[in-house]
Write a structure and sequence with these properties.
Layout (H helix, E strand, L loop, with lengths): L26 H17 L10 H11 L4 H12 L11 H54 L5 H14 L17
């Protein structure tokens, strides 16, 4: 293709970024897949693992803030005074197992939360570095694109600018209260 605009030669239309993306799995796809499978297999190791469900969230949240020490105190009280459990409402063995579960898995939760926090940061940091480079390249492209012999660069500059637009978050306005007469 010629850079001479007066020659009548056709310039190829710039491709979108999506046209340049390979569909073959990358090394990162393979690593992410391995991690995903590992997470799925680890989930199966957690005894009585319960998935979050809208029907149980409110129940769990209602009791989440209570200290596990109240479970220990109740176990001690029932051990010392078995008549307290005459209704059979409190399962001492199950509650002991629950305390063991809580004690064992608290460090795991902390580790998973730290991993998630750092994975999200890594994700954001890599994106930030790439976007910073995009913005610098865009400034260079704008300068080169002002040259009439660089029409292709100008077209690519416009596509980069289009793709840089941040998606707008729609704000939902509360409905206006209706007047009751």
């Amino acid at each position: 293709m010629s850079d001479n605009l007066g020659s009548g030669a056709l310039q190829s239309a710039p491709q979108s970024a999506a046209d340049n993306v390979s569909t073959a799995p990358t090394a990162y796809d393979e690593i992410a897949g391995t991690i995903s499978k590992a997470i799925s297999s680890v989930t199966g190791l957690v005894p009585a693992f319960e998935r979050r469900h809208t029907e149980t969230v409110q129940f769990v949240n209602r009791f989440r803030s209570f200290s596990p020490e109240s479970i220990r105190s109740t176990i001690a009280a029932i051990d010392a005074n078995p008549e307290l459990n005459s209704a059979g409402k409190f399962d001492v063995q199950e509650s002991r197992a629950t305390l063991q579960f809580l004690d064992a898995f608290r460090p795991v939760i902390d580790q998973v939360e730290e991993f998630l926090t750092n994975l999200k940061f890594t994700y954001g940091a890599r994106k930030a570095r790439a976007i910073a480079d995009v913005l610098q390249t865009l400034q260079i492209a704008k300068g080169i694109g002002r040259d009439p012999s660089s029409a292709g660069v100008e077209a690519h500059t416009k596509m980069i600018q289009r793709d840089l637009r941040k998606p707008r978050v729609k704000t939902v306005k509360p409905p206006k209260p209706t007047e009751v007469n």
